[in-house]
Amino acid sequence: MKLPGRKVYIFLLFVLVAAFVWVLHALSRPAQDSFVFTLKYTNPVYSETGALQKKVTATIAGRGYDLLYVKWNYPSPEIVIDFNRIKPTGKESKVDYKKLITEQYPELLNHVSIMSVTPESFYLGAE
Description:
Blueprint: H1 6-27, E1 30-42, E2 55-63, H2 64-73, E3 78-82, E4 92-96, H3 97-104, E5 113-118, E6 121-125
């Protein structure tokens, strides 16, 4: 059996180089992706925390390789909500998830921007 010639190997090498350059170009373009944060509650004011939200989805935007960096370095991020730190204002307190993300993951904003968070917030009624 005869081995393929040198030209075939050179052709395959150039195909690999072209694919590599194409991937680099695709990753340098702006993109958006969803990112799921798990919510962890500490010092709950309710005896039942089953009614509280379990996950929050954030839409993040950035270059493709920044999105990959975030996905690889934050595989299962969680937001800690400490009810002792929530100061009631009037009859109810609004807890903004986007604000919690920026407070607990400030280095995340060096790579991507947060476009939206679903749900945006929750209200804690005063007793």
